[in-house]
Design a protein that fits this description.
This protein is an alpha/beta fold. The chain contains 16 helices and 22 strands. 38% of the residues lie in helices and 22% in strands.
């Protein structure tokens, strides 16, 4: 695609708004390095306009019936389904992931919207009759108000879908700050929501960098913040938001481990690990990035993984044969290459080297080929850092206990998987491993929309996970009502502490 100077707009109060900040950044086609559009960087005044639009829309949207909100979600789901291929192409253009991966992302988002369509069931409260003489108690779940979502580049369509469908269906209004690296998907979402009949101001999009993020975190009208990104930024988001009196959920980085026991089907494990490690060029917060082989499984498994890597096709995401696309940016490519260099310098065994990969006709693209390290120590940078690229490291352990201890010593705890035929070993692993999501012979244990997504340790700041039942709890506040309807003459002053009678 040719270079263009088109600058995206913000989406505020149901329409596109041109930026007045005077700052913007380039959005590139990751496969070619060419600029496809430019994205504005909002200042505090523009963020305030979006928040004020959301705050103004909140009373009417909160009081809308559950049926009205659900109808909008159903209509949005149908529009997104009809245009899912267009959304996938947009994701591939700016992110670089291959078409099948982009289509899978949109399908997952559709499932999240479908879950939000069931809010009339999920928002039902509880009722207890006659908790005391003439007194009933019941619970309500009410929206929190204006919610901000700050989302990463790696899933420009799906991760916003972890947030806004539930938040909006529950009666909140929403301000989305998407990644500045692939922002166009968020604008398409805004347009589809408007077509679905969502009232103006309920969903808003402001683009930008840290200035926009901090303006949202400190804005007095924002009541809750959802974030997905790296752990250092997640910590900043959580601490800043909570310091300003907001509820916050901030999902951070990961080093997801797959433990492979000697009794595992090694061909199956190799297939699954390659898919989990190199899909989306490793740019997933649930990518398998470390394998821990137990006992004598190591040599055979490494050989099987290497043999499969030789067959993977690296290329632009919009070509049908491509399996591993480019990284998001030149900076990401250069960082991944530097970490591969560091792994060599620190003594790891480089089995497959992706640094020299070039794609004919796309020499300026941000490509790194599938890379595999064996016999990696836990003190090496390629193990200690979240690489976020097509690099897999292999650690060796002598027993399941040692493997679990290695996984648990890692500062992150997003996901962990075990490959085995032994049910007892699998059960021991699932109970003892320190991770929020566990796979048994499943490399990427991302839960479906009706379960919640979230890690442990430095992979999550806050105590409530995203989407699913915990997402409903995050985007609503509980209220307990005690009700009595006194009959004539049934009154007296009683200063004793109330008890059930």
């Amino acid at each position: 695609m040719a270079t263009t100077q088109t600058v995206l707009s913000h989406w505020i109060h149901g329409r596109e708004e041109n930026s007045r900040s005077g700052r913007d950044g380039a959005v590139t086609n990751s496969a070619t390095g060419e600029v496809v559009t430019r994205v504005p960087f909002a200042d505090a005044e523009e963020v305030d306009a979006a928040v004020q639009a959301a705050a103004a829309a909140a009373p009417a949207w909160e009081s809308a019936s559950l049926s009205e909100r659900t109808r909008v979600m159903f209509a949005f789901r149908e529009l997104l389904h009809e245009r899912r291929d267009e959304m996938a192409r947009l994701v591939t253009l700016e992110h670089g992931k291959v078409t099948a991966d982009a289509q899978g992302e949109v399908q997952r988002e559709l499932e999240l919207v479908e879950f939000a369509c069931g809010l009339s069931e999920l928002l039902k409260g509880e009722h207890s009759w006659q908790v005391s003489r003439g007194v009933d108690s019941y619970t309500l779940r009410q929206p929190v108000g204006v919610v901000a979502g700050i989302t990463p580049f790696n899933f420009p369509s799906m991760v916003p879908g972890w947030m806004f469908p539930l938040a909006i269906a529950a009666g909140n209004t929403f301000v989305l700050k998407p990644s500045e690296q692939d922002p166009s998907a968020s604008m398409m979402l805004a347009q589809l929501l408007a077509e679905a009949g969502l009232p103006d101001g309920v969903f808003n999009v402001v683009h930008g960098d840290r200035e926009a993020v901090d303006a949202l975190l400190t804005h007095p009208r924002v009541n809750a913040v959802s974030f997905v990104g790296s752990s250092p930024v997640a910590r900043h988001i959580y601490e800043t938001a909570t310091r300003h009196g907001k509820r916050a959920q901030a999902l951070g980085g990961a080093k997801n481990h797959a433990v492979v026991l000697p009794d595992a089907d090694l061909d199956y494990a190799a297939d699954q690990i390659v898919a989990g490690a190199y899909g989306s060029s490793g740019q997933r917060c649930m990518a398998v990035s470390a394998v821990v082989t137990v006992g004598d499984a190591g040599d055979a498994l490494v050989a099987k993984i290497a043999e499969r890597l030789d067959r993977l096709v690296v290329g632009p995401g919009d070509e049908p044969d491509s399996e591993v696309g480019p990284l998001i940016s030149a900076a990401a490519r250069d960082r991944v290459r530097s970490l591969i260099d560091a792994g060599l310098e620190e003594g790891a065994e480089l089995v497959c080297d992706g640094r020299g990969v070039t794609v004919e006709g796309h020499e300026q693209g941000f490509f790194v080929g599938p890379t595999l390290f064996d016999r990696v120590g836990t003190d090496m940078r390629v193990y200690q850092e979240e690489i976020f690229g097509p690099v897999l490291v292999v650690n060796r352990a002598s027993s399941l206990d040692d493997a679990i201890a290695l996984v648990n010593a890692n500062p992150w705890g997003n996901g962990a998987a075990v490959f085995t035929r032994d049910g007892g070993a699998a059960r021991s692993f699932e109970l003892r491993v320190s991770a929020g999501m566990v796979g048994i012979n499943v490399p990427i244990p991302v839960p479906m929309s009706y379960y919640s997504f979230g890690g442990w340790k430095a992979s999550l700041f806050g105590d409530i996970h995203m989407h699913g039942p915990e997402g409903v709890r995050f985007y609503t506040r509980g209220k307990v009502v005690s009700s009595r309807w006194p009959q004539g003459g049934d009154t007296k002053i009683d200063l004793a502490f109330p008890t059930a009678t």
